[in-house]
């Protein structure tokens, strides 16, 4: 086995990808939420489903919560339940976009009372981090405007900065604030955090515990995301990823399904800098919805897609690449990259799984386990978790 393959296996064995609790509940588009049988009815059952993904991939040991969707009376009990299942609670995601009060925004709203309410929610999320042992607070704001003149662009930034500073001050030494940007939707004229530059500017002002999150679905079509990755890494401000894929807008499809080459290019930038592993300070997670496909295998497939892109990125012959780049060998450099991308890494990953005591084929192993049939039979009655609940 070549050194590169061996190194790839070592890095892949340690790689972890966080799962979003909301991927296990019912979801849909703004036209229709499709109910599936056997979906979790509470956060405890969401964790149980997430643990299945970890059981068959060995690479998904943590779950992100979304508050208030995952509100429980006893967060210590929820964290203990996760530990019993061999996983842990990861990022805490705030939600200031589903309350009537937030029609004109939350932390950027012109009314100080609404801003206060949103701030209180964010501070509550930090309390939940304390109770669950979570270290990352992920902030995504639906704030923005639909019409020119609707509100002051600059004043909204001041309001945002003020709230962020208050939340930042509440963080413990080991906790971080991860700020996520999104170009458009739900607002269409301006979003208050539309791009990485805005997120970066706020994080820079806040301090070292504030970092930027890249959601792969949150850019204009054609945006070179790997360039953003390289820039944020260079500035030490890349805090995490929300992986998914898109054809048109924020489609939240399975990562690597629409554009596996883009995912490879992103992983290449990360592999070059040696920041693929769990100690990198980069929170890698999925942020997807499975509207028409079964959810647990959808998550398993997504984890595998990230692993495949990572494996290919780790197989890039970086010595040959640097030599070709230094020599100005345009075609040679490109060929080195494409060689890695065109490598079939499925057998390497199957072999690795065997070494880890996992089934070589996680999709087949899950399908054969009977878990899907069991939850369909067991989860009768109660209210299925779903979009907006
Ligand atoms: C947003 C954003 C957030 C996610 C919500 C559900 O578009 O991507 O990260 O928490 O959706
Ligand atoms: Mn996201």
TrEMBL record:
Keywords: Isomerase, Manganese, Metal-binding
InterPro entries from the UniProt entry: L-rhamnose_isomerase (IPR050337), Rhamnose_iso-rel (IPR013457), Xyl_isomerase-like_sf (IPR036237), Xyl_isomerase-like_TIM-brl (IPR013022)
Assigned EC number: 5.3.1.14
Single GO MF descriptor: metal ion binding
Gene Ontology terms describing biological process: L-lyxose metabolic process; rhamnose catabolic process
Keyword Lipid biosynthesis part of the UniProt annotation: no
Pfam families, per database record: AP_endonuc_2
Domain Xylose isomerase-like TIM barrel: 73-277
SUPFAM superfamilies in the record: Xylose isomerase-like (SSF51658)
Protein name: L-rhamnose isomerase
Organism, as annotated: Glycomyces luteolus
């Amino acid at each position: 086995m070549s050194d590169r393959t061996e190194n790839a296996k070592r890095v892949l064995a340690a790689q972890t990808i966080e799962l979003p609790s909301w991927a296990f509940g019912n979801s849909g588009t703004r036209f229709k939420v499709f109910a599936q049988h056997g979906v979790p009815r509470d956060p405890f059952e969401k964790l149980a489903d997430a643990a299945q993904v970890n059981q068959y991939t060995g690479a998904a040991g943590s779950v992100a919560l979304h508050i208030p969707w995952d509100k429980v009376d006893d967060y210590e009990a929820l964290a203990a339940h996760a530990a019993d299942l061999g996983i842990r609670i990861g990022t805490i995601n705030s939600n200031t976009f589903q309350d009537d009060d937030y029609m004109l925004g939350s932390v950027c709203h012109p009314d100080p009372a609404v801003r206060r309410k949103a701030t209180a929610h964010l501070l509550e999320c930090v309390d939940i981090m304390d109770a669950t042992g979570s270290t990352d607070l992920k902030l995504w704001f639906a704030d923005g405007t639909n019409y020119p003149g609707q509100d002051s662009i600059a004043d909204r930034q001041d309001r945002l900065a003020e709230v962020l500073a208050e939340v930042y001050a509440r963080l413990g030494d080991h906790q971080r604030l991860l700020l996520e940007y999104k170009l458009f939707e739900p607002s269409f004229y301006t979003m208050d955090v539309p791009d990485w530059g805005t997120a970066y500017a706020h994080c820079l002002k806040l301090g070292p515990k504030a970092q930027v999150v890249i959601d792969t679905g949150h850019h204009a079509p054609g945006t070179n995301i790997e360039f953003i990755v390289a820039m944020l890494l260079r500035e030490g401000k890349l805090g995490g990823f929300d992986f998914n894929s898109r054809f048109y807008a924020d489609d939240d499809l399975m990562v690597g399904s629409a554009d596996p080459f883009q995912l490879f290019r992103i992983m290449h930038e990360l592999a070059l800098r040696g920041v693929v592993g769990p100690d990198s300070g980069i929170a890698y997670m999925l942020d997807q919805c499975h509207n028409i496909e079964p959810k647990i295998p959808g998550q398993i497939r997504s984890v595998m897609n990230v692993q495949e892109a990572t494996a290919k990125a780790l197989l890039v012959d970086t010595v040959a690449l640097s030599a070709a780049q230094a020599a100005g060998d345009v075609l040679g450099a490109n060929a080195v990259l494409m060689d890695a991308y065109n490598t079939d890494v499925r057998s390497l990953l199957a072999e690795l799984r065997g070494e880890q005591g996992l089934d070589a084929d996680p999709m087949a192993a899950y399908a054969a386990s009977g878990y899907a049939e069991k939850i369909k039979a067991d989860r009768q009655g109660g209210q299925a978790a779903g979009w907006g609940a």
